[in-house]
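Thread: "does anyone have the structure for this chain?"

Original post by V.I.:
We have the sequence but no experimental structure in hand. Need at least a predicted one for the grant figures.
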Amino acid sequence: MVSEIDGSGTTAHMRMRTGLVVGLAVGYYLGTKAGRERYEQIQGLIDDFRKSRPYEKAQAAVELGVERVRQQQANGAESVAVGG
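Reply from O.Q.:
Generated one for you, tokens below.
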């Protein structure tokens, strides 16, 4: 693969890599600047959602489904052990 070198002696790939590193650094800086206050705000929203009725109903439905699958697997393993 041939890389094109511009007038300054850098390749397009190297410029892209440098841009990526700079972008990540800026994102990290801005993210840390938001800091604890934003984290607690998001955590509060998650906690409110977990206490909501739709979440509780969905959680109960999933738990019921998991229990049914466990029972089916136990019944299947039992019939195999008996020789059926």
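V.I.: this helps a lot. The two ends are 63 Å apart (CA to CA).
O.Q.: and The chain has a mean pLDDT of 82.
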